[in-house]
Specification:
- The complex is a heterodimer of chains A (245) and B (615).
- Chain A has helices at residues 2-13, 29-40, 61-89, 115-120, 123-136, 138-150, 156-183, 199-202, 207-239.
- Chain A is built from 9 helices and no strands.
- In chain A, helix 3 (61-89) packs antiparallel against helix 7, helix 5 packs antiparallel against helix 7 (156-183) and helix 5 (123-136) packs antiparallel against helix 9.
- The longest helix of chain A has 33 residues, at 207-239.
- Chain A has one domain (61-186, 194-241): Growth Hormone, Chain: A, CATH 1.20.1250.
- Chain A is elongated.
- Chain A is mainly alpha-helical.
- Among the domains of chain B are: 29-123, Immunoglobulin-like, CATH 2.60.40.10; 130-227, Sandwich (Immunoglobulin-like).
- Helix content of chain B is 26%, strand content 18%.
- The N and C termini of chain B lie far apart (142 Å).
- Classes of the chains: A mainly alpha (245), B alpha+beta (615).
Chain lengths: 245, 615
């Protein structure tokens, strides 16, 4: 409770700066929005859409968050499906259940692990954490696409989803940077992220080892996408709707 | 270091999060682990069936979770065996970490009987929504249907307000006495309209929820009873159903009418499309009806002149195909006719032909239908007087002729005997009726007689040029008798005489006047009777005038004189083929009619004129 009060005080102190303009790339999000609406059955109220190349386009924070949440939800859906597909196709009977052992490369980032911790953390820090996690996944996603392409009999469903996730992740990163620019302008932290070193294991000659490395990576991806989705929904309710979704 | 021991255990026997294996052995095992709100979770198990063991022993649950790259050292025991009910373990929020792998194991008397690994975000199954209610939206104009809005509250323990968990809901409804629930699509909001409920029915509604992105639904809420207001008595009894049936019927009817109209208007064209007319075989320039019904002369005439006239019977009808007669082929011409060969300069060849077995050249058909009837020797191949038979007949005739010559003393009368009705070539001895294309009668008899006086004079005997065949080259093939006269050298023929005349008469255009023929004759005045007419006639033209034959035949004696003046041979030849510039030279003296017309061009007689003459 205390924390929430303090948080509230904080948030009212700040001034929301004027909305920034959008790059043309980010304005392609409306198309994704439509797709997401179909997927998620979310009745999003008519969002103002910035035409490509518009200079003085103003998008409110609410819209930014709405779009970010849609993106993160989409990414989590894709990664869940991808993991299930991979598990069904390659991991059956191989004893990959030992995922309890696996560790994700983003575990080093100290992210909140339950609701209390998430509520206690400052939203700026949480935003930064989200950014760090997203950045940490840039490299693994890129290599995932490459390696899945090179896989023997790479199923098209997995490959297409990997490609989609990689692209959406980049977009979400851009969106988050915009949000951060709006919510916490000024000081820009150094680009911190955790390095992924799992590429050699993805390229192992031994098929079992290689498949396990894939399994591990996809499992971590599913978990991290759920984490980000949760954080963003929490932040949206907190920032935009004042904890009253 | 106990985790090192435990890890192999995990490696070997850890269960997948989604696998709830049913172990029939009766041991205690996990049934379900569940987190309703992503803040706590609980696990349930079954005690199992124990055979004959009174006290199964204490069952314990141990858990272990990994935190920050390292496993906790120890398996910890379940913090709460009570709150979640019997045979369960409840982990409150302090023990719950999201996105962290957990492993739990069940032990009975210290022995591990079951193990499971999972993460908390994977086992979320929310509680059912609460507070269902409905409101009437509207009633249809017919008073039969109504729409309602159903509302509910999210489960209380799910922190939806703060956005920690996002739920979606699924509503199901059915009529009270139905058994099958109707499902609606999942919605994110906590109220949803239900359309088209009948006013005279009662409905049941229930809702369940699940975390978005998950697959598993929570339990169903309590059932909500919807009792709609009663139908007003003024309501319509029956629903309006779109008259699909009528529309279909009328549509088919209209289409059928249009189709029939189309067919009737384009009847002819459709008929042409479906059944294209098969072209009847036709020879260009020749009327098929004439072939069927016309007289022989007309047919032959037309066949002869088709090359020249080619009447435009069917030229503009593209459907009609014509059989093209190839009459200008020189190869065929040379091969086609025995007469040619007989008349050829190659005397020896012709001799050989006569003596030799006949070859197949020029053999077109064995039958000339309806026209010719002959009896031949059994040795003859064909029944008709075709070229095929001719060589054989020639042979026979030649022999006979020779015989005749040899047996001059034999009764000449016999020569003429059979030829009363059909004067023809010799072979009188054999009593062969000579098939003739025409039959000239009366004069023949007389004509034959003086001719026959000299049996050796073959020319005298033969009064008629029987056109027995038409070669593809277009020449007229005369009967063997004529041929004999024309150029055969059967018995003994003075070759010199022949060659002399040959030289004179080798020309392409081979119709002769008497005068020309006489020249040939005069050259060899002393040619014996058996001398034949030299093959002076160019083989290209195989028509021979009777007159020429008679004159050329080399009668040293009688018939040679002044053929125009006297009438030793009242013979006539019907012309079946008139070919310009060729033609048959008639012996005009034999004809009863004034002959000026005929002598106009050296004996060239047209068909019309001939028809006038003949009966």
């Amino acid at each position: 409770m205390k924390m929430s009060k303090a948080y509230k005080a904080n948030i009212w102190e700040r001034k929301l700066l004027d909305d920034q303009t959008f790059p043309g790339d980010w304005s392609l999000l409306p198309l994704l929005l439509l797709v997401s609406d179909l997927l998620l059955c979310q009745s999003v109220a008519s969002l103002p859409i910035c035409p490509t190349g518009a200079v003085n386009c103003q998008v409110s924070l609410r819209d930014l968050f709405d779009r970010a949440v849609i993106l993160s939800h989409y990414i989590h859906n894709l990664s869940s499906e991808m993991f299930n597909e991979f598990d069904k196709r390659y991991a059956q009977g191989r004893g990959f259940i030992t995922k309890a052992i696996n560790s994700c490369h983003t575990s080093s980032l100290s992210t909140p692990e339950d609701k209390e911790q998430a509520q206690q953390i400052h939203h700026e820090d949480l935003l930064n954490l989200i950014l760090r996690v997203l950045r940490s996944w840039n490299d693994p996603l890129y290599h995932l696409v490459t390696e899945v392409r090179g896989m023997q009999e790479a199923p098209d469903s997995i490959l297409s989803r990997a490609i989609e996730i990689e692209e959406q992740n980049r977009r979400l990163l851009e969106g988050m940077e915009k949000i951060v620019g709006q919510v916490h302008p000024g000081v820009r932290e150094n680009e911190v992220y955790s390095v992924w070193s799992g590429l050699p294991s993805l390229q192992m000659a031994d098929e079992d080892t290689r498949l396990f490395a894939f399994y591990n990576l996809l499992h971590c991806l599913r978990r991290d996408s759920h984490k980000i989705d949760n954080y963003l929904k929490l932040l949206k309710c907190r920032i935009v709707y004042d904890s009253n979704c | 270091m106990s985790f090192i021991r435990t890890i192999p255990d995990l490696l070997t026997s850890c269960f997948a999060i989604s696998v709830y294996s049913a172990d029939p052995s009766g041991k205690p095992q996990f049934t379900k682990c569940r987190s309703p709100e992503l803040e706590t979770f609980s696990c349930h198990w079954t005690k199992g069936v124990h055979h004959g063991v009174k006290n199964p022993g204490s069952i314990q649950l141990f858990y272990i979770r990994r935190s920050t790259q390292e496993w906790t050292q120890e398996w910890k025991e379940c913090p709460d065996y009570v709150s979640a009910g019997e045979n369960s373990c409840y982990f409150n929020s302090s023990y719950t970490s999201i996105w962290i792998p957990y492993c739990i194991k069940l032990t009975s008397n210290g022995d591990t009987v079951d193990q499971k690994c999972f993460s908390v975000e994977e086992i979320v199954q929310p509680d059912p929504p609460i507070g269902l209610n409905w409101t009437l939206l509207n009633i249809s104009l017919t008073g039969i249907h109504a729409d309602i809005q159903v509302r509910w509250e999210p489960p209380p323990n799910a922190d939806v307000q703060k956005g920690w968990i996002v739920l979606e809901y699924e509503l199901q409804y059915k009529e009270v006495n139905e058994s099958q629930w109707k499902m609606m699509d999942p919605v994110l909001s906590t109220s949803v309209p239900v359309y088209s409920l009948r006013l005279d029915k009662e409905y049941e509604v229930r809702v369940r929820s699940r975390q978005r992105n998950s697959e598993k639904y929570g339990e169903f809420s309590e059932v909500l009873y919807v009792a709609l207001p009663q139908m007003s008595p003024f309501a319509c009894e029956e629903d309006f159903q779109f008259p699909w049936f009528l529309i279909i019927i009328f549509g088919i009817f209209g289409l059928t009418m249009i189709l029939f109209l189309f067919i009737f208007s384009k009847q002819q064209r459709i008929k042409m499309l479906i059944l294209p007319p098969v072209p009847v075989p036709k020879i260009k320039g020749i009327d098929p009806d004439l072939l069927k019904e016309g007289k022989l002369e007309e047919v032959n005439t037309i066949l002869a002149i088709h090359d020249n006239y080619k009447p435009e019977f069917y030229n503009d009808d593209s459907w009609v195909e014509f059989i093209e007669l190839d009459i200008d082929d020189p190869d065929e011409k040379t091969e086609g006719s025995d007469t040619d060969r007989l008349l050829s300069n190659d005397r020896e060849k012709s001799l050989n032909i006569l003596g030799a077995k006949d070859d197949d050249s020029g053999r077109t058909s064995c039958y000339e239908p309806d026209i010719l009837e002959t009896d031949f020797n059994a040795s003859d191949v064909c029944d008709g007087t075709s070229e095929v038979a001719q060589p054989q007949r020639l042979k026979g005739e030649v022999d006979l002729l020779c015989l005749d010559q040899k047996n001059q003393s034999n009764s000449p009368s016999t020569d003429t005997a059979p030829t009363t009705q059909q004067p023809g070539v010799i072979l009188a001895k054999e009593n062969k009726p000579r098939p003739l294309l025409i039959s000239g009668t009366e004069s023949t008899h007389q004509a034959a007689h003086p001719q026959l006086s000299n049996p050796s004079s073959l020319a005298n005997i033969d009064f008629y040029a029987q056109v027995s065949d038409i070669t593809p080259a277009g020449s007229v093939v005369l009967s063997p008798g004529q041929k004999n006269k024309a150029g055969i050298a059967p018995c003994d023929m003075p070759p010199e005489v022949v060659s002399l005349c040959q030289a004179n008469f080798i020309m392409d255009n081979a119709y002769f006047c008497e005068a020309d023929a006489k020249k040939c004759i005069t050259v060899a005045p002393h040619v014996e009777a058996e001398s034949r007419v030299e093959p002076s006639f160019n083989q290209e033209d195989i028509y021979i005038t009777t007159e020429s034959l008679t004159t050329v035949a080399g009668q040293p004696g009688t018939a040679e004189r002044a053929p125009s003046s006297e009438m030793p041979v009242p013979d006539y030849t019907s012309i079946h083929i008139v070919q310009s510039p060729r033609g048959l030279v008639l012996n005009a003296t034999a004809l009863p009619l004034p002959d000026k017309e005929f002598l106009s061009s050296c004996g060239y007689v047209s068909t019309d004129q001939l028809n006038k003459i003949l009966p």
